[in-house]
Amino acid sequence: MLRALTLRRSLTSLHPHPHPHHHLKTLTPTPTTTIPKHPLNPTSARPFSTTKASDAELRKYLGYAALFVFCGAATYYSFPFSENAKHKKAQIFRYAPLPDDLHTVSNWSGTHEVQTRVFHQPENLQQLENVVKEANEKKTRIRPVGSGLSPNGIGLSRAGMVNLALMDRVLEVDKEKKTVRVEAGIRVQQLVDGIKEDGLTLQNFASIREQQIGGIVQVGAHGTGARLPPIDEQVISMKLVTPAKGTIEVSKEKHPELFYLARCGLGALGVVAEVTIQCVERQELVEHTTVSNMKEVKKNHKKSLSDNKHVKYLYIPYTDTVVVVTCNPVSKWKGPPKFKPKYSQDEAIQHVRDLYRESLQKYRKIKNESPDNDEPDINELSFTELRDKLLALDPLNKDHVIKVNQAEAEFWKKSEGFRVGWSDEILGFDCGGQQWVSETCFPAGTLAKPSMKDLEFIEELKQLIEKEEIPAPAPIEQRWSGRSKSAMSPASSLEEDDIFSWVGIIMYLPTMDPRQRKEITEEFFHYRHRTQAQLWDQYSAYEHWAKIEVPKDKEELAALQARLRKRFPVDAYNKARRELDPNRILSNNKLEKLFP
Question: Rounded to a whole number, what is the distance in angstroms from the first to the last CA of the chain?
Fold first, then answer.
């Protein structure tokens, strides 16, 4: 499923294709008002005197003036303004019509959106430099935004954005050093396709392939494998376009302190224009999926982390099922394993279809609904699509969610086996439909001596879910990475042998009904809040930058700011922001609240 930043109205696609540069203008709407006539009172018996007429005229024109002022004020406050406007909170009409040049930009999950008149898409470095220079002179914001995949919309800003989708070229490949230099707007899949003929690929991958390279690096994204660091650690140099100092190149040799700060810089230290990445030889992997339980997982955990290049666990709430997925290079001597699955893909999913038919009939009867002729053929749906449709029937009913989870556990049991393919094909993961997600990262010892805190975290989390009766869908995904030397990475560490665990909790948004989505959102934040209160401090867990949500409560926000200061070099980060972007044109409300 294509996951991309959504722009409604006249804004063009962010996917690369020849496109002119946009210059958006501000519209000034003019209201049209109809003034009703006021007839004389027909019951009046006396002649209409001059004094009375004057009073009536005065009242009439006072009424006209009041109506004019009201209409002007209503029009003025009906349209969105820049983030730093003093009057931005005074919205008399929240749902006023939008002018034609105002575009709605949302992240893929539809959980965050903004309206903006300013959306730049430069086609080359010089255009990008001009955009940044002009914005800095005018002190107008142009927040860097990638493919819009971040669940928290970290790249969105209503004041203005810059997107590098049209800067998507592979600039240089060094086969001997196994490095590649690219423009930062290139998507991961584009990059992989562009260098496979050279026998190269990326060291690791996140779950999906639609991220722009600049974005995936800046938020500290990761794949899985205790021996493999987060993706920012693969970057060996970057070219930043900064508001105050122009275009600068950073690496271990050039501006090393800034390099390690900016690799995971959240887009606030400069617009990443070019990236040089350390690659590896392209190789085929064998993916092995097995279904286990917590007792067996704990017994084999140390061996699983050390013996497998890639490993992840998928936990099914309200069951003891743990899906273990490992990926390793195909043996040069043995070749790929010979394995005949016990069930076909169709057989593995059939019980899920049956549950959907049964549940659909049940809920239609309860709601007194007739069959929908536009209902898609469920035999054509993937497992994740079926899961979305099942959850949509009653997403916050714990008993219904448990049934769906049990069906998922059975699906995985019937899906055990092997799969062989290139790393960029195998390491992906179908995350399902639109969703709320919170992912935390915390230390898990070393590869030689795992602390087992990662599995203790999961056990406590599952107990919390059952105690609070949270309608938690599957899966709870657990992955691992090595450390990163990037100062702002959640997996940052000075110790080379440290490993980190990443745990994601989820709630799907399988419906477009606003009321239902609001209820799911409230339940998810309850789920997240309970997890935070019970586990985060105990395990030194910090949220992924693309998934951290800013609290609305002032005390909670202050606590989050203090907590971030304990883990990250906030003063050094803010100092670099002041030096490189003194007018904060690359910032947005989220960053200003996280790093005041």
Answer: 37
**Among candidate residues 473, 465, 335, 502, the one with its CA nearest the CA of residue 402:** 473
Q: Omega of the bond prior to 97 within 30 degrees of 0, cis? A: no
Count CB-CB contacts under 10 A for residue 127. 15
Residues whose CB is less than 8 angstroms from the CB of residue 455 and which lie 6 or more positions away in sequence, other chains included? 294, 297, 298, 301
**3-class secondary structure, 154:** coil
Give how far Cα 577 sits from Cα of 258, 267, 337, Å: 11, 10, 52
For the segment 416-461, what is each residue's pLDDT rounded down to a tens digit?
Answer: 999 999 988 888 777 788 899 999 999 999 999 999 999 999 999 9
Predicted model pTM: 0.83
Name the 3-class secondary structure at 32.
coil
Under a CB-based contact definition with an 8 Å cutoff, are residues 309 and 327 in contact?
A: yes
Neighbours of 37 (CB within 10 A): 5
Predicted confidence band of residue 338 (pLDDT cuts 50, 70, 90): confident
> Beta partners for 143?
161
Closest CA to 486 of 278, 206, 265, 202: 265
- For 472, which DSSP code? P
Query: With contact defined as beta carbons under 8 Å apart, do 328 and 285 qualify?
Result: yes
Do residues 294 and 301 lie in contact, with contact meaning Cβ atoms separated by under 8 Å? no
8 A C-beta contact, residue 481 and residue 500: yes
Sign of CA dihedral 192, 195, 199, 204: negative
Q: Is 290 helix (H, G, I), strand (E, B) or coil?
A: strand
Angle at which helices 345-367 and 398-413 pack, to 10 degrees?
170
Q: Is the pLDDT of residue 283 over 50?
A: yes
pLDDT at position 10 over 70: no
Q: Which residues of 485-506 are buried (b: 16+ CB within 10 A; e: fewer)?
A: bbbbbbbbbeeeebbbbbbbbb
Q: What is the 3-state secondary structure (H, E, C) of 550-585?
A: CCCCHHHHHHHHHHHHHHCCHHHHHHHHHHHCCCCC
Q: How far is CA 134 from CA 122, 162, 243, 246, in A?
A: 13, 12, 9, 12
Model confidence over 226-240: pLDDT tens digits? Answer: 999 999 999 999 999
Beta bridge partners of 479: 502
Of the candidates 208, 230, 234, the one whose C-alpha atom is nearest the C-alpha of residue 219 is: 230
Q: Could you say which DSSP state residue 61 is in?
A: H
Position with higher pLDDT, 102 vs 535: 535
Cβ(488)–Cβ(230) below 8 Å:
no
Residue 258 structure tokens: 């800034």
Dig out the tokens for 531 from the structure: 């997890």
**Pair 144, 267: CB distance under 8 Å:** yes
Position 255: which residue type? Answer: H
Greatest mean pLDDT among 89-93, 295-299, 364-368: 295-299
Rounded to an integer, what distance in angstroms lies between the CA atom of residue 186 and that of residue 3?
15
Strand order in the sheet with 103-106: 6-8, 103-106, 113-116
Identity of the amino acid at 262: A
Token pair belonging to 574: 């803010």
Query: How far from chain centre, in Å, is Cα 425?
Result: 21
Give yes or no for a contact between 441 and 237, defined as CB atoms under 8 angstroms apart: no
* Cα–Cα distance, 401 to 144 (Å, whole number): 38
Type of residue found at 485? K
